[in-house]
UniProtKB/TrEMBL annotation:
Residues 25-59, 310-335 are annotated as: Disordered. It is a multi-pass membrane protein. It is found in: Membrane. This is Sucrose transport protein SUC3. Pfam families: MFS_1.
Length: 595
């Protein structure tokens, strides 16, 4: 069959449209040599000019279950460190001489890095062109930073001793060790920065490896590894024998509690490196390839001497003789001018891309997108902010509350008071272990409960449970003066019960956001970034105000917990009155971890 020439301005066609035209041509019996003509010059459909584009790994590839399981293992290593950070670091900083009123300030780094680092790392990893893949380089760098930070924290007392802190034994000295405290804070901030560097790419890596039909299974695997890391981490934090198993951990500046912290963190480093090695080995990524632009003008086929005998005279000049020399000169000049224009456009595109990848551009994009949210999302953001205003005091002071209020200890008091405090901290870590177990079991119950009563009602119920639990901390603190064992048992039960509303907090708001913003066109990633604002802003408020607020009432943690209970009650009422009634369909977005 004779070839057919189609006259269209192909320069304005997208790549997919040109390929679709070629597909239609094949169905109509047009051969592969068919041409697209634009005013007298023809280019094969198989190689149309196109702008630079990125070739992403195909999401249609389905990984084996073994690959998905082993590729998620880094989540367990990261969460192991998070668990130790949550259970041990607030009490430990007070042993270095930092007052309880200022101990919450060090947690300010978590929301700041979570707000700034995670969105930026997510975009940078999307566009990474490393031969090792898009996600694995960020995971590797972040893990190395975690190992360095954990080592700095564990040895902060020894480093402070070398920097000129007191030479007295840690058993006798009760003052402030300034050098150790500064080193600790530096390590703490690096740790939060590194954790946020790893978490985003780790989840994105799993999404890259799983096919469309594996999304729910892959997310369940990831959450399971995080649960494993939590359980192991809180178990390590509740162990009091690290300094006995490894006697070299204790020094003149680092006593038993410090030695236990050091041992737990060194185990965390080994476990994290092992998990990272497994993930990097089994998670095989396809590098992101940028195809260079084909700077071809309309006249390129003529200049290349491509055959055009099939066109016939009518296609080129309507049967009139042409001056080939003058036409060649005109075409060469046109090609040179178009190549110059293409180069200028490429430079502008690279400049725009660099700007759009910048930290400021990413944050501005998230902030300005709030104007285009559905009206119901503003209620979601308000309820989410109050929810986290009720949760974060518990995350900051849970083990410290056990040591101070429940076990009546004091990290700066007499030897018996110090021992009681550390025993309470260890019991608090065990309570968080129970919390993680309940959280993991509850995660499987959220979907049927949402289908039965709706996400709005379930979210409200979880906030009312938090209200009751936070109010109960004041009652337990008052009754703990008696020192009865049932009071200590009740505190552990409270820790375990909070696992149920915590599972809802980690899942339902994200699913509500996904449903409300499904048709907005802004992208789920951007919507989640906006929701992240409602998480980090309350964390900043609590980090700055919780310690001084407690100090106004003579110290302790109950004043912050009372504010948390009020916020939980308000968020429950607003969830019932302000949130829209959503569909009963629910797909849990998974356990999002701390920070």
């Amino acid at each position: 069959m004779d070839a057919v020439s189609i006259r269209v301005p192909y320069k304005h066609l997208k790549q997919s449209e040109v390929e679709l035209a070629g597909l239609g041509a094949d169905r109509n019996g047009i051969g592969q040599d068919s041409r697209v003509s634009n005013g007298g010059s023809d280019v094969p459909l198989s190689s149309p000019p196109s702008p630079p584009r990125q070739t992403h790994p195909s999401s249609a590839n389905i990984s084996s279950l073994k690959t998905l399981i082993l590729s998620c293992m880094v989540a367990a290593g990261v969460q192991f460190g998070w668990a130790l950070q949550l259970s041990l670091l607030t009490p430990y900083i007070q042993t270095l001489g930092i007052e309880h009123a200022f101990s919450s300030f060090i947690w300010l780094c978590g929301p700041i890095t979570g707000f700034v680092v995670q969105p930026c790392v997510g975009i940078w990893s999307d566009r990474c062109h490393s031969k090792y893949g898009r996600r694995r380089p960020f995971i590797f760098v972040g893990v190395i930073m975690i190992c360095v930070a954990v080592t700095i924290i564990g040895f902060s007392a020894d480093i402070g001793y070398l920097l000129g802190d007191t030479k007295e034994s840690c058993r006798d000295f009760k003052g402030t060790r300034t050098g150790a405290a500064i080193v600790f804070v530096i390590g703490f901030w690096i740790l939060d920065l590194a954790n946020n560097t790893v978490q985003g790419p780790a989840r994105a890596l799993l999404a890259d490896l799983s096919g469309p039909q594996q999304c729910n299974s892959a997310n369940a695997i990831f959450c399971s590894w995080m649960a494993v890391g939590n359980i192991l981490g809180f178990s390590a934090g509740s162990t009091r024998n690290w300094h006995r198993w490894f006697p070299f951990l204790t020094t003149k500046s680092c006593c038993e509690a410090c030695g236990n912290l050091k041992g737990a963190f060194l185990v965390a480093v080994v476990f994290l490196l092992f998990c990272t090695f497994v993930t990097l080995h089994f998670a095989i990524e396809v590098p992101l390839i940028v195809k260079p632009a084909q700077n071809l003008s309309d006249s390129a086929p003529l200049l290349n001497g491509a055959p055009h005998s099939h066109l016939g005279p009518s296609n080129a000049t309507n049967g009139k003789p042409t001056d080939h020399k003058s036409e060649s000169g005109t075409l060469i000049g046109k090609a040179n001018s178009e190549n110059t224009l293409n180069h200028e456009m490429k430079v502008k595109e690279e400049t725009v891309e660099v700007f759009s990848n910048g930290v400021g551009s990413v944050l501005v994009n998230i902030l300005t997108s709030m104007r285009h949210l559905p009206p119901a999302m503003h209620s979601v953001l308000l309820v989410m902010a109050l929810t986290w205003l009720s949760w974060f005091p518990f995350f900051l002071f849970d083990t410290d509350w056990m040591g101070r209020e429940v076990y009546r200890g004091d990290p700066k008091g007499e030897a018996s008071k110090v021992e009681a405090y550390h025993e309470g901290v260890r019991e608090g870590a065990f309570g968080l272990l129970l919390n993680s177990v309940v959280l993991g079991v509850s995660s499987f119950l959220i979907e049927p409960m949402c289908q039965r009563m709706g996400a709005r009602v379930l979210w409200a119920i979880s906030n009312f449970i938090v209200f009751i639990c936070m109010a109960s901390t004041a009652v337990i603190s008052l009754l703990s003066i008696t020192g009865h064992a049932p009071i200590k048992t009740a505190s552990l039960v409270l820790f375990a019960v909070l696992g149920f509303p915590l599972a809802i907090t980690y899942s339902v708001p994200f699913s509500v956001t996904a449903e409300l913003t499904a048709d907005t066109g802004g992208g789920q990633g951007l919507a989640t970034g906006v929701l992240n604002l409602a998480i980090v802003v309350p964390q900043m408020i609590v980090s700055l105000g919780a310690g001084p607020w407690d100090a106004l009432f003579g110290g302790g943690n109950v004043p912050a917990f009372v504010i948390a209970s009020i916020s939980a009650f308000a968020s429950g009422v607003l969830a019932i009155r302000k949130l829209p009634q959503l569909s009963s369909s629910f797909k849990p977005s998974g356990y999002h971890g701390f920070g």
